[in-house]
Amino acid sequence: MAKLKVTYFNLPAFGEPIRLLLAYSGVEFEDVLIDPNNWLNLKPKTPFGQLPLYEENGKIINQSVAIMRYLGKKYKLIGADDWEDLEIDAMAETFRDFIIKIAMYHYEPNDSAKDKLKEPLYKETIPFYLERFEKSAKENGGYLAAKKLTWVDFFFASMIDYISLMGKLNIMENNPNLKVVYDNVMNLPAIKKWYEKYPLSLEFSKVWLESTRKPGKE
Ligand SMILES: N[C@@H](CCC(=O)N[C@@H](CS)C(=O)NCC(=O)O)C(=O)O
Predict the structure, then answer these.
(1) How many CB atoms are located within 10 Å of the residue 4 CB?
(2) Hey, which of 40, 119, 129, 217 would disulfide with 98, CB 3.0 to 4.6 Å?
(3) How many domains does the chain have?
């Protein structure tokens, strides 16, 4: 049996979809949780100085979306043809862009730069993306692409709570079809089982996000 390992912070961010895809597949894997406060010791020993990392039989790789795509292929969570795979990829990259825009605001260290980012982010960028994600979820019958469950739904569902905390948003409130995407992943028996035994809680995320939240006029 392949020896698998995921190394990521004890936060439900970019490593979380990888954990969920493996949990869905039912394979055993080592889930290495790193306390971000201890990260600087490990950083120089990683391939590109960042997490998550995925290991398979001693081979190690970084880049979360590439890993998700790989696991999606492996566990048949892909489209019916190359075009659908392209749509799934495009949705994943767009979702990553959205996350990064919220993270850039959260982590912006300069007060006045942060204040300048706030209005366009909350009045334009976030509604712009959410409206389009919601439309896609509606058109794809409760999935983000390809009208079926694919790895990009795992990406979305596994990170949305963390992003909501980071951006102080309630993303699902006005987006019923995105709530369906979330439920379609979270209600999978293997995912429910995973969360029953899961050691992570959003409590640590709240503490972590508060400790890294830069001032601005919040
Ligand atoms: N494009 C990379 C980004 C990875 C990334 O930004 N990792 C962050 C955590 S989400 C990290 O390792 N931060 C610590 C650091 O850069 O020192 C991916 O998706 O895997």
Answers:
(1) 18
(2) 129
(3) 2
- Pairing state between β 4-9 and 30-34: parallel
pTM: 0.96
**196 or 190, which is more confident:** 190
Report the separation in Å between the CA atom of 51 and the middle of ligand 1, taken as the mean of its atom positions: 5
Query: Would you state the structure tokens that stand for residue 62, as one six-digit string?
Result: 């970084």
pLDDT tens digits for range 132-168: 999 999 999 999 999 999 999 999 999 999 999 999 9
- Distance, in Å, from the CA atom of 152 to the CA atom of 185, rounded to the nearest integer, reads 10
Cβ(212) – ligand 1 distance below 6 Å: no
Both tokens assigned to 68: 């998700």
User: Under 8 Å CB-to-CB from 184, ≥6 apart: which residues?
Assistant: 142, 143, 149, 153, 157
Atom number of ligand 1 nearest to Cα 9: 9
Residues 56, 116 within the same domain: no
What's the CA-to-centroid distance between 104 and ligand 1, angstroms? 13
Can you say whether the dihedral through the CA atoms of 46, 71, 79, 179 is positive or negative?
negative
Q: Which two tokens stand for residue 153?
A: 């739904």
Q: Which amino acid is located at 93 in the chain?
A: E
